[in-house]
Amino acid sequence: MGTKRVVVIEGDDAAPEAVRPTVALLKQLNLEIEWLHPPFGNDAMARYGTLFPDETREAIDTADTTLFGASSGSAAPVIQYLRWGKDTYANVRPARWIPGCKSPLANPEGIDFIILRENLEDLAIGSGGDLELLRPIELHSWRTGKAIADMGPGQFSLKVITEAGTERIARFAFELARQRRDEGKPGKVTCATKHNLIPEADGLFRDVTIRVAASYPDVTFDTFIIDDFARRLIAEPHAFDVVVLPSLYGDIFSDAAGGVIGGLGLCPSGVYGDHYAYFEPIHGSAPDIMGKHVINPTATLRTAGMMLTYLGLPEVAQRLEQAIERVYADGQSLTPDQGGTASTQQFCDAVADYL
Q1: Which residues contact 35 (CB under 8 A, 6 or more apart)?
Q2: Are strands 277-279 and 65-68 parallel, antiparallel or unpaired?
Q3: Please, are residues 248 and 123 in contact by the beta-carbon 8 Å criterion?
Q4: H or E element in which residue 225 lies
Q5: Closest to 75 in 3D by CA, of 119, 34, 120, 45
Q6: How many whole angstroms separate alpha carbon 36 and alpha carbon 54?
Q7: Between 20 and 30 A from 150 (CA), which of 92, 182, 201, 336?
Q8: DSSP state of 81
Q9: Do 178 and 218 contact (CB within 8 A), yes or no?
Q10: What is the domain range of residue 173?
Q11: How many domains is the chain partitioned into structurally?
Q12: In a 10 Å sphere around its CB, with 0-12 CB exposed, 13-18 middle and 19+ buried, how is residue 225 labelled?
């Protein structure tokens, strides 16, 4: 395989408390990985006068991938570059329950699905402004007939869905479903949108996904209004396999999926483009527990497992997941969010012992 180069951006607040022991554990496995720790955030600002120095950008550009913690601000320029600069459009967010995880459901056994979030479009483009900006184009509401600018004072945000962006995330979803079917999963794609209320943007996302589905007759496909999907996610999460969603819904419902299996501390994420991928757990930076060293590292460890698979080390990733499963099965080294008293480091030590 040759030596792989991985950039590590530990992130903000409590995120480094999960990233550091995760990387330390992987280093113990003596893998052919060169770990790079370029400057970023407040430390980089103090040394270089910028949150994202050129040398950090160069490290990312020349590395095989990046492992990212979570950002509450200072690491934001890095994640923006990893996202839009690298055109990483497919955010794969697995939700898989294992025995010992503190799910609120009576029967979580067998829950194993993926929220596939389109990562670059929708409201994620971050464009909008004062309603007065819309006055020169005389934009009207087709429902009320009134000029949008006359509704002010107020603000607007642009929800942008493109045909090309939707087609590539839809094809990613169907290819992923095929891959999962080969692994014994159902091989099913679900699309959910608010096309009844937002026929332009959400309607386009749904229509394009339906069109792509016709090219994959071997993959089961269904589509729901997002409201109905929300109910189904709670009532029958076992029914899902790959769920493809526009960016905002993907962000929201992957958190809901985490709640179904037992918490965001369990949920990994890999973000893929055609030429690059980075890996980041879906939980935030958890400033409320910063310095307590009790952040659950499961999400970061599982994220690292996805990264190992991407780097061509699926057997190591499988061993890592199996070790995590054993820690949950014995229940002796769980962090407080899962009903235990272990520290982040103690959890990682338990995983290392099983490895």
Answers
A1: 6, 8, 23, 27
A2: parallel
A3: yes
A4: strand 220-225
A5: 45
A6: 14
A7: 201
A8: I
A9: yes
A10: 103-111+159-261
A11: 3
A12: middle
Query: Are residues 57 and 4 part of one domain?
Result: yes
Strand partners, 8: 67
Instruction: Tell me, yes or no, whether 172 and 200 share the same domain.
Output: yes
- Which positions ≥6 away from 241 have C-beta within 8 Å? 113, 114, 177, 180, 185, 186, 187, 188, 189, 190
Distance, in Å, from the CA atom of 93 to the CA atom of 100, rounded to the nearest integer, reads 20
Within this chain, do residues 165 and 254 fall inside the same structural domain, yes or no?
yes
Percent of the chain with pLDDT over 70: 100
- Domain assignment of residue 118, yes or no: no
Backbone angles phi, psi at 68, to 5 degrees: -115, 140
Same domain for 244 and 107, yes or no, is yes
Whole-structure pTM over 0.70, yes or no?
Answer: yes
Q: Which residue has the tokens 């955010």?
A: 91
pLDDT of residue 145: 86
pLDDT of residue 146: 87
The pLDDT value recorded for residue 142 is 82
Q: Tokens 């497992």, residue?
A: 305
In this structure, the answer to whether residues 107 and 229 fall within a common structural domain is yes
CA dist., res. 285 & res. 292, Å (int): 13
CA distances from 270 to 55, 228, 241, 313 (A): 24, 27, 17, 15
> At 271, is the secondary structure helix, strand, or coil?
strand
Residue numbers of the chain with a pLDDT score lower than 70? 1
Q: Which residues are CB-neighbours of 178 under 8 A, at least 6 positions away? A: 187, 216, 218, 219
Look at the chain and count its residues: 355
Residue 1's pLDDT is what? Answer: 67
Partners of 340 in the β-ladder: none
Helix (H) or strand (E) holding 332: none
Tell me: do 196 and 107 sit in the same domain.
yes
Say how many CA atoms lie within 13 Å of 226 toward its Cβ: 21
